[in-house]
Design goal:
301 residues; alpha+beta; elongated
Length: 301
């Protein structure tokens, strides 16, 4: 297609000039178009009649109504975009921690890092319910995964509003917890939880994971549930012992989790009863969200 060239000019400037003197000549691809500027329009411009005209009340109200309608249409779109961006950032954090979990195993003869607290080989230190520990980033650095992902920020979900402690909202350094069935612990301990008697008590080595793509490792835990980095799930799916993020500000009632094969997912709560969970050890037998998480936590013996 030939390039188009536009040349515009006006001839003459006196009110006595002819219409041809005030013609706008536009050349486009060799064709000439003439746009005549009438004397009346020229006089209106000279006298300021077009410049001085203001808005009427009806026009002003129409503009305000249009802006209000556009805002009503755009705000939900912007809100969804924000939720999606935060969800993406959270999934990225979990993916990085998942890679750190895999690297730890690779460097330690396929042993899985411990999730059970109060062990020297535990993946992370710190209890988010204690004011002295909730904001202590050094406890993150003391965890065995930190050397493989040396950023404190990846331990925190961007939507986590922190803990409510002693009547004040305290920012926390960690939003994620590890599946309590991941990592070895003292076999003399009773099953954790007590309903796990007929299930694999814990996975100590990578070879123990018969279906790594079906078993989750880390998830985004609710502020009202999180304490240490040890997330306990009832494998019989009768009770929320701990519970993942369950609120509108935490990814609109969804949460992220990563799996033993390295992939990450976002799970949306579908059972209406889940939204009513607000404290640990809430009984909800038959809850499909709880059953889904329980199935992905461990295996039957």
């Amino acid at each position: 297609m030939r390039a188009r060239h536009f040349v515009a000019y006006t001839l003459g400037c006196s009110p006595q000039g002819s219409q041809a003197d005030k013609a706008l000549a536009i050349s486009r691809s060799g064709d000439v178009y003439l746009a005549l500027v009438t004397l009346q329009t020229w006089h209106d411009i000279r006298l300021g009649r077009l410049r001085g005209r203001g808005f009427t009340l009806v026009e002003l109200l129409a503009v305000i109504a249009t802006i209000a309608i556009l805002a009503a249409l755009l705000l939900p779109i912007l809100s969804r975009a924000k939720i999606k961006a935060q969800r993406t950032a959270c999934s990225s954090n979990l993916r990085q921690l998942g890679f750190a979990w895999i690297m730890y195993s690779s460097e330690n003869n396929s042993a899985l890092v411990a999730s059970y607290p109060s062990q020297p080989e535990v993946w992370v230190q710190g209890d988010m319910t204690l004011p002295t520990e909730a904001g202590n980033a050094d406890l993150i650095r003391e965890g065995k995964l930190f050397r493989y992902s040396q950023s404190v920020s990846v331990y925190h979900c961007p939507t986590d509003e922190g803990q409510s402690l002693n009547g004040a909202r305290i920012p926390t350094v960690r939003s994620y917890s590890m599946n309590s069935f991941m990592g070895a612990r003292n076999p003399a301990l009773p099953p954790i939880p007590e309903t796990a008697e007929n299930y694999v008590p814990f996975f100590s080595k990578e070879s123990d994971l018969r279906r790594p793509s079906d078993l989750w490792v880390l998830l985004d835990e609710d502020e009202r549930s999180i304490n240490d980095g040890f997330f306990v799930t009832d494998p019989t799916a009768h009770m929320w012992i701990d519970f993942p993020a369950v609120s509108s500000h935490r990814h609109n009632f969804s949460y992220g989790l990563n799996f033993a094969d390295g992939h990450s997912e976002v799970w949306r709560h579908s059972d209406p009863r889940t939204q009513r969970v607000s404290v640990n050890r809430t009984e909800q037998s038959g809850n499909s969200d709880l059953a889904r998480l329980a199935t992905a936590s461990t295996l039957r013996k």
